[in-house]
């Protein structure tokens, strides 16, 4: 194990990415600091097994490969940076709050677009790929998802994975070694602590470049505006607000007493891919404390930047009247609703009814949590944003 874990070091990973691509320009090397912090946490805290070491190594090398290919594309096609990139809205609701449903429902609107799950896995084209025809990248994503579900069929009851569906740019931020995705795949509290005191703007500035790159790759996105979505943005609100000043921030609200154990169940399932020692109590207590700090920061950001930047969507309202909330958010984003859009949204809801997926089961107790403790931890957020 010691020899395997030693492969999670910066230089061998950089060398492997260079070997795979034949390229050597990584662009700005700001990413080496977060990568170094992450690797140290993976080596010393995550209790990875052999499969986990191999999986994290591959994830990191794949991110470095995409970076090299992106830098190469920008050098050969400087017009990519001239793409006009406008972000209409950014969903920042915590996990398990209906944010995925709202995201996918919003981008049924013809003038809006989102990052698709398949392209988040490899945002840079493979060698020899014809522009606008990402056949091999789609096939790669299909194989990846099939493998994930083979190892843990319960994942679909937790999150509606869909190769061509709108998904989270956290997958791309993770390839910059920034964001909350590493803590979903492994127990890395030192990395999370570092992240909380770090300026994440370099990662978000590169995310905007990736959005331009994705637009350039897909001509059907011409003239469309982006809707982004990931709970991880709550850990970087200053960077989000600075880099995307044109965007409205959409917050889906649901009682953390309900959502915390649900998310703990999700990340416990994900961590099982890489360790034989998932400690559900550690996962639960870490998650509750982390979310409490993120929601406190969210409340502070609203006070600093003004309520006009935020759109609130209560979970209960979204479940009771999804089309009403969809219409309200689109109007705030400046997207008039037509009869054709209404029909498309209705069809999406019909095709994606929750009852078509298995029930997601979990308890507070299995994660070392209790209702009274969560009510205290989230008292300020609950009193301000929830109708209890």
Q: What does this protein look like?
A:
With 388 residues, this protein is mostly helical. The protein is globular.
Question: Which helices and strands appear, and what pairs or packs with what?
Answer:
Blueprint: H1 2-5, H2 10-21, H3 32-44, H4 50-76, E1 87-91, H5 99-106, E2 112-113, H6 117-121, H7 135-151, H8 155-158, H9 170-174, H10 181-185, H11 189-196, H12 201-217, E3 225-229, H13 237-243, E4 248-253, H14 256-271, H15 280-305, E5 310-314, H16 315-320, H17 322-332, H18 339-351, H19 371-377, H20 379-385
Parallel strand pairs: 1-3, 1-4, 2-3, 4-5
Kindly summarize this structure in a few lines:
The protein has 388 residues and is mainly α. 56% of the residues lie in helices and 6% in strands.
The helix content is: 55-70%
N/C terminus separation: 50 Å
Catalogue the unreliable spans. Answer: none
What order do the strands of the largest sheet run in, or round the barrel if closed? 2-3-1-4-5
């Amino acid at each position: 194990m010691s020899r395997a874990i030693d492969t999670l070091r910066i230089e061998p990973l950089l060398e492997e990415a260079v070997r795979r691509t034949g390229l050597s320009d990584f662009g700005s090397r700001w990413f080496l600091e977060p990568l170094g912090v992450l690797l140290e946490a993976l080596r010393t805290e995550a209790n990875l097994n052999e499969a986990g070491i191999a999986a994290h190594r591959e994830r990191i090398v794949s991110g470095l490969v995409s970076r090299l290919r992106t830098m190469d594309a920008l050098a050969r096609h400087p017009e990519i940076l001239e793409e006009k990139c406008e972000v209409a809205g950014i969903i920042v609701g915590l996990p398990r709050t209906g944010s995925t449903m709202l995201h996918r429902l919003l981008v049924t609107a013809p003038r809006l677009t989102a990052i698709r799950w398949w392209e988040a896995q490899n945002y840079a084209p493979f060698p020899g790929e014809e522009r606008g025809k990402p056949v091999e990248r789609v096939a790669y994503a299909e194989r990846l998802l099939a493998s994930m579900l083979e190892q843990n069929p319960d994942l679909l009851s937790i999150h509606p994975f869909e190769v061509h569906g709108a998904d989270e740019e956290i997958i791309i931020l993770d390839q910059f070694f920034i964001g909350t995705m590493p803590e979903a795949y492994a127990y890395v509290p030192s990395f999370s602590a570092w992240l909380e005191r770090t300026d994440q703007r370099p990662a978000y500035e590169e995310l905007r470049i990736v959005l331009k790159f994705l637009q350039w790759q897909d001509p059907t996105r011409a003239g469309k505006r982006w809707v982004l979505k990931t709970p991880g943005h709550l850990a970087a609100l200053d960077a989000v607000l600075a880099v995307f000043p044109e965007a409205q921030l959409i917050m889906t609200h649901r009682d953390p007493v309900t959502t915390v154990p649900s998310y703990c169940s999700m990340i416990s399932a994900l961590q099982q891919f890489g360790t034989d020692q998932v400690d559900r109590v550690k996962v639960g207590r870490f998650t509750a404390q982390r979310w409490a700090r993120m929601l406190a920061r969210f409340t502070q950001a609203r006070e600093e930047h003004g309520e006009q930047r935020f759109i609130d969507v209560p979970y209960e309202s979204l479940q009771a009247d999804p089309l009403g909330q969809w219409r309200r958010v689109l109007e705030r984003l400046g997207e008039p609703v037509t009869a054709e859009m209404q029909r498309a949204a209705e069809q999406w809801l019909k095709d994606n009814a929750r009852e078509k997926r298995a029930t997601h089961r979990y308890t507070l107790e299995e994660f070392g949590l209790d209702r009274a403790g969560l009510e205290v931890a989230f008292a300020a957020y609950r009193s301000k944003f929830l109708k209890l």
